[in-house]
């Protein structure tokens, strides 16, 4: 099996003979079939929670410890807030390297002010970073539970309900297939870190870098919303 068409037509017994489990074989064959057709294969109707306020969340963090004595930090939590037919982007930013706690507590204050919310995010990264910040800053258990209980991983729902005609199941791959585009093609996760570190050293000189970072973050939030709207259509 050396081509996508051959994989799409391969029988499950043959794929299992090659060392795949039944689930792996079925997933790969369906992925090949979706790629050939250019259409998603719907497996199930999604179960999507609802709330008065839907929030689409994306974290931006430095990828590695900045120095031997300075750990990785989360410098931006961006939210696209949908309520009563209106949409608003709201970023929480650490404007310097020592403002992470202020940024996070401002975010928590906003969450506490909301009554009926859902926090949609893509994959496990946001929940992992959220737990890290809870522990780092000693957030009370009741607030931790309130936030975590309202976090919904759209990646898990999407990949359970559909096989996409994309090389992988990343947000950018699926959202682009759905027609979404990012405003600044030159900005990516690694580039945004470099721009943030410049900005953190000199807010005034590199204010334009922050604007690009915020645009990139807002686009990630809106891409998550785009996938959720697609799943809503399946339901």
Account of the 3D structure:
The protein has helices spanning 4-9, 12-17, 22-37, 100-112, 125-136, 141-149, 154-161, 171-177, 189-201, 207-234; strands spanning 41-42, 53-61, 74-83, 86-93, 117-121, 151-153, 162-163. It has 235 residues and is an alpha/beta fold. The strands form 2 sheets. Strands 4-3-2-5-6 form a 5-stranded mixed sheet, sandwiched between helices. Helix 7 (154-161) runs parallel beside helix 10, helix 8 (171-177) crosses helix 10 (207-234) and helix 9 (189-201) packs antiparallel against helix 10 (207-234). The longest helix has 28 residues, at 207-234. The chain is globular, with a radius of gyration of 20 Å. The two termini are 35 Å apart. The model has no long low-confidence stretch (mean pLDDT 95).
Give the strand order of the largest sheet, numbering strands 1, 2, ... along the chain. 4-3-2-5-6
Helix fraction by DSSP (H/I, runs of at least 4): 40-55%
Percent of residues in β-strands? 15-25%
Major β-sheet annotation: 5 strands, mixed
- The stretches of 5 or more residues where confidence is low (pLDDT under 50) are none
Which series of helices and strands comes N to C? HHHEEEEHEHHEHEHHH
Question: What is the residue-mean pLDDT, rounded to a whole number?
Answer: 95
Q: Round the Cα radius of gyration to an integer and report it.
A: 20 Å
User: Got a strand count?
Assistant: 7
The CA-CA distance between the termini, in Å, is: 35 Å
Helix and strand content put the structural class at: alpha/beta
Described by the principal axes of the CA atoms, the overall outline is: globular
SS field, number of helical segments: 10
